[in-house]
Amino acid sequence: MVDRALRRDENLLAxxxxxxxxxxxxxxxxxxxxxxxxxxxxVFAEYxxxxxxxxxxxxxLLVPASSYERFWVLEQAxxxxxxxxxxxxxxxxxxxxxxxxxxxxxxxxxWGRLLIQQVEDYARSVGCQEVELWSDTRFxxxxxAYSGRGYRRTGAVRExxxxxxSTEWHxxxxxx
Length: 176
Hints:
The protein is an alpha+beta fold and 176 residues long. The chain contains four helices and seven strands; from the N terminus they run E-H-H-E-E-E-H-E-H-E-E. The chain has helices spanning 33-45, 64-67, 111-125, 140-148, and strands at residues 24-27, 70-76, 79-90, 94-102, 130-136, 152-159, 167-174. The termini are far apart.
């Protein structure tokens, strides 16, 4: 079943940035599932043809803290407004950055950089020297954020054969 939260008429892109307190970074809990799904569905809705299917393709979002090695959220006034996760691909060498999303009203303010830095700091703390990620070719703003942090496209491309007909580019960075 495709998440109902994807429908544009549910106003998923409503501004949150007007809330008084800045977002706080904290470890995700499994109870953050609904907020994460709303956030990510809102980002997906910005790109025609993108759909979020939590029943078949993104089951990890149903229990995020239990599904990833590490998962963090940005929370603002009780709303999940950003997130990022990590999976270890090669212990002692490489981690994979996953699920980097920031609410539209907070982009361009450094929150994406903070989330990416969280993964890089974690990688270093577990002795990893590299971070890799895959990003949908449509997520151009995200690509700029990754490039700004020193990530480079490797030339690898993969097609997911999912409901969104996603094609992803591979990015990589060696940590200093």
